[in-house]
Design brief:
Elements: E1 7-11, H1 16-27, E2 31-36, E3 46-49, H2 55-69, E4 74-77, E5 88-89, E6 92-93, H3 96-122, E7 134-139, H4 152-172, E8 177-184, H5 197-205, H6 216-228, E9 236-239, H7 250-253
Parallel strand pairs: 1-2, 1-4, 2-3, 4-7, 7-8, 8-9
Antiparallel strand pairs: 5-6
Bound molecules: nicotinamide-adenine-dinucleotide (NAD).
Amino acid sequence: MDPAGKVALVSGGNSGLGEGAVKHLLAAGASVVSLDLGGDVPAGADFVQCDVSDEASVAAAVSSAIERHGRIDILINNAGVGGIGTIASAEGPGDIADFRRVIGVNLIGAATLAAHAGHAMTRNEPLGPDGERGVIVNTCSIASYEGQEGMGAYTATKSALLALTLVWARDLAKFAIRVNGVAPGFMATPMVAMLPPPFVEELLKGNEFPKRAGTAEDYAAVVDFLIRTPLINGEVIRLDGGARPPARTTWSTS
Ligand SMILES: NC(=O)c1ccc[n+]([C@@H]2O[C@H](COP(=O)([O-])OP(=O)(O)OC[C@H]3O[C@@H](n4cnc5c(N)ncnc54)[C@H](O)[C@@H]3O)[C@@H](O)[C@H]2O)c1
């Protein structure tokens, strides 16, 4: 699908990777609605305040985007939060309330948005030679494949999103809606800005090539490719310089 003239929703579009996708899609000629809790809206984008972990908020945001723009062609299912903590320690059980918080945003939030935006897409007129009605891109993670020590909640959500990308592609195929994913490694965004530099250095040393943090532009380029390429469906593309994270870094165990 060519994004030009289409309507795209980007969750978490006011920061980091989502902001990169918003800017890229705007430059490609799409109308873009950022769905976020708050923050600075990228210039040229529309904004609807939305908490993806709350179904009423998602339903209202999707309706509002359709009222303003007439349809939804593209969903970038990107809003997410981090979470650190082992499942148990000598001090006590792991933090299950925090586990629920991360699942609520990263997994239930992504599913809720796919449900509401996906339903809206079923009503679109078929477009182009393949008669496409929509494209969804899920932001997965390197942790979808290799979750490190202390990343249980986050890994649970991102592994689930990896698996759901294929299931949702199967669910929505009859409506000519494709579902793909991107699995970034370490990306320089506000989400990871607080991590100690020695930890980041060690992580990036684990990249094969290039040994650098990814950028929002790197991410947006893959999103663009997945939107435009009709025969890619149910697929998740790693964006991590070949990194395969070990169980733990020396930083986290020191
Ligand atoms: N930065 C990385 O290294 C990295 C690596 C792999 C995957 N990811 C994933 O990429 C996505 C974007 O992360 P980022 O690094 O750009 O982080 P970020 O913190 O810069 O951006 C996340 C955005 O999501 C929004 N958000 C959080 N909770 C929300 C909610 N309940 N409802 C609506 N919006 C909400 C935030 O307000 C923020 O604008 C996340 O899903 C993250 O898990 C990031």
